[in-house]
Amino acid sequence: MIIASSLMVLTLSISQQVDTPAPSQAEIAARFTKAATVGFSRWDKDADGYITLRESTRAIADKSNKGDEAAAIATLHTILREPGLRVSAIRLEQVREPARRPLGLFNWNKQFELLAAAVNAPRGPLFGPGAPQIDGIRQGLEGDCYLIATMGAQANLHPDKLRAMFKELPDDRVEVQFHGASIVVDGLSDSERALAATSADQGTWISIIEKAWGTALLKLQRESFGNALDRAGGGGNPTTVIQMLTGRKAILNQIIVEDGLNDVMRQLDYSFRSAMEEKRLVCAGTDRRSLPPGLVPTHAYAVLGYDPTTRQVTMWNPWGKDFMPEGGSGPRTGYETKKGKFMLPLADFARIFDRVMIQSASRLGDD
Fold it and tell me: What one-character DSSP code corresponds to residue 122?
């Protein structure tokens, strides 16, 4: 499974851009308390004085929650669904009185501020000018790096094929055509918009495909309850996404440097050469080992290019962030990154990444 911490992703993937002075922390806290207090009784469906994960899951899909209230329930939902926080329910008193809140090191108000900024960001059409393209894509609060990395690779190599997957329908619905499956989804609620991936001014396509993918997984597993975005963020592997995007088989290769670095590099060189020449999708993943600064453990990346002469690999982090190493790029300091893109030598790649997922030339169903 390849999945990054969703709470970590949020702080790196959502930025607030305003022309007016930023509100004070006291103002943010007051907005959160007011919005969560007003909405609490609506979200607490059984009126027992607690918001549970099941109740917050239902509430974030409710389009009647707007603006700050949508951001407030999304905030509570992120707390309830995060396994590491171990919060099973939230009381109204904890919303009103910060001293009663668990998770002393977790800033509820900051979480709300970031989600409210996402809710209030400008909305665009399904596709903006020049979309889809990889620049501007940012993974949101969902832990679905495996999905967004693969979508970025497809946007980079085959934007026309990616765009052809979508068909706009009446009543704010969109049909998304995966290989062997057609999924129709409603437009996102304000809360879902706050949690979903974004693509700058390219439109809403990346968040729609995120919801469609989660919907497909819910149907495949015959799950009767759950939020599609949360299901997409439940972890996964790019091989499955590659197959559903392309109708081609995907191969997962483990990188075991202990078997001999030269042999590993020879195999990677051959695989990358042929994949890039034939414009096949390639992704890579890290494990839990210690990594250079700027790189993320248990995370999926797209492989965008390979220069066989210099043996330089071009990568993309679906967080879409910038990173500037101190003292020059390298395995000790990290690699200069712009909009998620960075380059590193093939030898460094072999030592850092533990698996590579490559689209095959063989069709699904071929023997």
Answer: P
